[in-house]
Amino acid sequence: MSERRRQVRSEAASARPRKTKAVPDALPAAEDEPRGIQPKTARGEATRRAILDAAERVIGAKGFSEASIGAITREAGCAQGTFYIYFKGKEEVFSELVLEMGRLVRRALTQATANIPDRLAAEKAGLRGFLDFVAAHPDLYRIIQEALFVDPAAYRAYFSSFAEGYRSALADAEAAGQIRPGDCDVRAWALMGIARALGERAVIWEDRTPVAEVVDAAHDLIVHGLQPRGDKP
Amino acid sequence: MSERRRQVRSEAASARPRKTKAVPDALPAAEDEPRGIQPKTARGEATRRAILDAAERVIGAKGFSEASIGAITREAGCAQGTFYIYFKGKEEVFSELVLEMGRLVRRALTQATANIPDRLAAEKAGLRGFLDFVAAHPDLYRIIQEALFVDPAAYRAYFSSFAEGYRSALADAEAAGQIRPGDCDVRAWALMGIARALGERAVIWEDRTPVAEVVDAAHDLIVHGLQPRGDKP
DNA sequence: TCAAAACATGAATAGTGATTCATGTTTCAT
DNA sequence: ATGAAACATGAATCACTATTCATGTTTTGA
Fold first, then answer.
1. Which range is most confident: A30-44, A69-83, B131-145?
2. Residues whose CB falls within 7 A of nucleic chain D?
3. Which residue positions in chain B have pLDDT lower than 70?
4. A84, closest nucleotide (Cα–C1')
């Protein structure tokens, strides 16, 4: 019991793969896919997809470290070795899932808010679109949360992309006089936080309150705040 | 490749300990601490504390599954075996950390909002207290996020306690006419979401914006909402 | 139709780290 | 001061699974 309080070194920032017996590094260093190749046929595409979908379900249900490759391939209906035809390792499927989640959410939000010029109205439609999406993809939602530790870069990229888009949307609306002036960066994070919390309430807490009710209540808060006797037109 | 889409069974809800060789269950079934005892002396208390603190740092830095008992005890400055004198296993320290986080945050919030009868003012003080707290305990903050998978019960307990307290505080304020009428449950979750997101921005994104600025901007949003031309007294 | 390319298999390998335990050392009550 | 209770040690055990690989099977293109 001596030097307490030492700084914990993050040591490679996260998980590392098993050691390979002989690392023959002497090549010009460039290519990055000794394994984990894109399928070339429809059959391969279907198998890869099956594994990815199975991974979503298994990792979403058990969490990253409890989800074994064996469980994933069993769920996908193929042999363990097949997994490594399409993915370099466990981390790689996970990262793909996080990316997919990002793509899908962005698409959902884009569609939900398309052609809505008013920011306050867009805010409501976006919240509704988000809550509908997470209700339809509870596994992906839980997966994002694990990314903070399993793939920090993907985690940050996921939220950064939303934060930046949100911030500039608010800045535009502010310039157009559609919303109250204020710090758009902080407000973007705050609004993302609201959406995230309500999504979690629905998915993790399995709250059954109809989405429309939740959206109405939250949107009232977002528009008018907590203050009493607000101006009602 | 056959029965796809099978339901993934959560299988014991989370991690399970290694199998013990011979389980001699035949006793009346009641006691639950074959290991993991409370220290009886000051020396033991200090060691237990050292391990808990080390676990906070190591798990906070590397995440639960990457944090080995060896790393924790090394950080604590004791032998691996010592760990099992005070904790039944890895999960147990983790759960303690989540509980401790809950206790500390609750205390911080109670102190920050003590003797502030007005809800809107309390809201601001509470947000400030929370952000100050997470800045001082970044490790604990990250740990909560992992609890969703490592110890779901603790995760839910942590947020439930806040949600319920928050909800009833809002309900009281609403009854007293201090805030706008509305769904207090949804609003409680939304406000928690704001705090959580801003805490994350500070801790995970290491954003350096002064806390006071963040609090002012967020509080303006919380009080007045996004709508333009709000009533300014 | 046939060789090559793609896919698929699952048993074997092997790294890892949680947990135990037989053996000391320290502290406490009397 | 002294035996018992507490505490501490760290090497050894051993379950667990990610990953590999030698060997088939299926699909594709000409």
1. A69-83
2. A 1, 17-18, 20-21, 35, 41-43, 66-70, 80-81, 83-84, 89-91; B 18-19, 21, 37, 39-41, 43-47, 78-82, 84-85
3. 1-36, 230-233
4. D19
Write the DSSP string, B27-55.
S-S----SS-PPP-SHHHHHHHHHHHHHH
Please indicate, yes or no, whether residues B99 and B212 belong to a single structural domain of this protein. yes
Is A215 part of any domain?
yes
CA distance A58 to A72: 6
Q: Are B202 and A193 in contact (CB under 8 A)?
A: no
- Residue A44 confidence (pLDDT) above 90: yes
Task: Mark whether A189 and A103 lie in a shared domain.
Answer: yes
C1'-nearest nucleotide to the CA of B85: D7
Segment A137-171, tens digit of pLDDT? 999 889 999 999 999 999 999 999 999 999 999 99
Within 10 A of A107 (CB to CB), how many other CB atoms are there? Answer: 12
Q: Please report whether residue A230 resides in a domain.
A: no
Whether residues A56 and A116 share a domain: the answer is: no
Judge if the beta carbon of B93 is closer than 7 A to nucleic acid strand C: no
Are B4 and A50 inside 8 Å of each other by CB? Answer: yes
If asked whether residues B213 and B108 sit together in one domain, one would say yes
Residue B140 is predicted with a pLDDT of: 83
Q: Which nucleotide is nearest to B1 (CA to C1')?
A: C8
The answer to whether the Cα torsion of A132, B168, B157, B86 is positive or negative is: positive
Confidence category of residue A30, pLDDT binned at 50, 70, 90: very low
Of A75, A201, A221, the CB nearest to B6: A75
Q: Which residue segment(s) compose the domain that B47 sits in?
A: 42-88
pLDDT for B48: 97
Tracing tokens 């809201």 back to the chain, one arrives at B123
* pLDDT of B63: 96
Instruction: With CB atoms and an 8 Å threshold, state whether B10 touches A62.
Output: yes
Number of domains in chain A: 2
CATH number of the domain bearing residue A123: 1.10.357.10
Q: Give yes or no for CB of A41 within 7 Å of strand C.
A: yes
Are residues B208 and B159 located together in one domain of the fold?
A: yes
Does A61 share its domain with A142? no
- Answer whether B231 sits within 8 Å of A230, measured CB to CB: yes
Give B166's contacts (C-beta < 8 A, 6+ positions apart). B188, B191, B192
Q: How confident is the model at residue A6 (pLDDT cuts 50, 70, 90)?
A: very low
Mark yes or no for CB contact A231/B230 under 8 Å: yes
One domain for residues B110 and B187: yes
CA of A40 to C1' of C5 (A): 10
Q: Do B225 and A223 touch (CB under 8 A)?
A: yes
* Higher local confidence (pLDDT), B181 or A12: B181
| CATH number of B66's domain | 1.10.10.60
- What is the tens place of the pLDDT at every residue in B182-231? 999 999 999 999 999 999 999 999 999 999 999 999 999 999 999 997 44
Say if residues B15 and A66 touch (Cβ distance below 8 Å).
yes
- Identify which of A196, A176, A191, A199 has the alpha carbon closest to the alpha carbon of residue A222: A191
Q: Is residue A212 part of a domain?
A: yes
The pLDDT assigned to A41 comes to 95
